[in-house]
Amino acid sequence: MSLEPRQHWLIYALGGGLGHVTRATGLIRSANQAGVTCTLMVNSPLLPLVPLADELGSSNTLMALDHRLDGPAVGRCVHELLQAIQPTRFVVDTFPRGLGGELAEVASEIRCPSVLIHRDLNPQYVQEFRLNEYVSKHFDLVLVPGEQATLQTIVPTIETTHWLIRDAQELLSPSQARLALLSQSSVSSAMTHSERPLVLVMATGQPHEIREMHELAEHLMAAVGDCVELRVGSLVEPQSLFVRRCWLPTSPLLPLLPGVDLLIGAGGYNTIAEARAVGVPLIGFARQRLYDRQARRLHSDECLANVDDLVDRVRSARRRDAARSVQFVNGTHSATDAIMKLQPLATRR
Q1: Which of 127, 165, 168, 193 is the most buried (most CB within 10 A)?
Q2: How far is residue 115's CA from residue 142's CA, in Å, rounded to a whole number?
C-alpha cells in the first residue's frame, strides 16, 4: 500500500503534568525515524523545566500554549493550526473532546484521519460525556498504549506495549547508569564506588506532592542513609540542603533507570511503564486524579501501608545483577506504523 508523501502530524497532548508530553515525545521520535514530521501542542506549566526542544529536534514544531488559557482560547489555537499546517494526521492524547471540550467545537474542521491515544480513563468521565459515541463519530483509529481499554467503540482499536521515550538499545548499561547516577549529585565522589543498593525517589506531580516526596526522601536519608545510596529525581530543586545533595534534575530519566535498585514514586503512566520495561522494583503512591486511576496500575506488593513499612522495605533493598540486560518492545513503533497506514480522507464522515 502506497503512502502519501511528507506526512505531517498534529499531536494534541495538553495536560497539567508531563505524562502526555512524554508519551507524545516518544511517538514523535518514532515517527521521525519513519520520515514523519510533527507539530506538538502542549500546555503543561512544567514545560520550562524540561529540555523538550532538544528532545524534539529541529525537524518538529513545538506549540507551547499558556496553561491558563480557557477552552475557547485553546480551540481557536487548534483552529489556526489546522488551517496553517493542514496536517495529514490529527493525534489526540487521552482526552478525545480536548481538555476543556474545545476539540468538539472544531471537529468538523478536521480533514485528515484522527487518532486517539487511549490511556485508562475514569468510567464516570466516559459516561458523563458519552465518549463512546463521540469517539465512534469523530475518530478513525484508537491506540491503546499498554493499558486496559475503557472505551467501547466501533472504531478500529489496536493495543500496543507501553510507549516509552527511548528504545532499549538507547539506555545505558546497569553499571554505566549506576555510575552516572552516583556521580551526578553533589554527594562525595567516594560514593560512586559504593556497593550499597541505589534507591531513587521520584518527586513528580503537583507542587504539594513534589514537596511531600522531598520530605519523604529526607526522612529516608535519616532513617536508612547508612545502608543505601539514596538519590532524588526531581525537576524542582528541593528546599532542604540535606536533600539537595542527592538531587538529580535529570530529564529524561529512563536512560539511567537500569542503574536503580529500587524506585519509589507515584502511579502515573510513565513511572509505571518505565519501571516495568526496565525491570526495576517499584514502591508507589497512588495519587488522586480526576481522570486517571493510578491505583489500578500498581500491583498489591508495590503499594505502601505506611511510612514505617517503606523504611523497612528500603532497608531490605538489594543490589541487582550489574551484568543483566534490559530488553523491551517500545509500543511507539507499532503505533507509528498503524497511524501511517491510515488512508487519507477526502472529507470527514
Answers
A1: 165
A2: 6
Strands 89-93 and 114-117: parallel
Determine the Cα–Cα distance for residues 106 and 3; give it in Å rounded to an integer. 26
Mind giving me the DSSP string for 35-70? T-EEEEEE--TTGGGS-HHHHH-TTSEEEE--TT--
Sorted by sequence, the CB contacts under 8 Å of residue 225 that are 6+ apart come out as: none
- All three cell numbers of 38, joined, read 510533527
- Reference 160, options 298, 339, 289, 38; nearest CA is 339
Does pLDDT of 192 surpass 60? no
Burial of 294 (0-12, 13-18, 19+ CB in 10 A): buried
* Residue 265 identity: G
Mean pLDDT for 312-329 is 93
Average the pLDDT over each of 83-97, 156-170, 176-190 and give the range with the smallest value: 176-190
Give the integer Cα–Cα distance in Å for 238 and 247: 7
31-334-83 Cα angle (round to 5): 40
Nearest residue to 183 (alpha-carbon basis) of 192, 175, 174: 192
Can you say whether the dihedral through the CA atoms of 70, 72, 78, 80 is positive or negative?
negative
Q: Report the run of H or E that residue 30 belongs to, with start and end.
A: helix 19-33
The mean predicted confidence, pLDDT, of the chain is 91
Instruction: Please state the pTM of the whole predicted model.
Output: 0.92
- Residues 125/46, Cβ–Cβ less than 8 Å: no
Instruction: Provide the b/e sequence for 118-142 (b: ≥16 CB within 10 Å).
Output: bbbbeeeebeeeebbebbbebbbbb
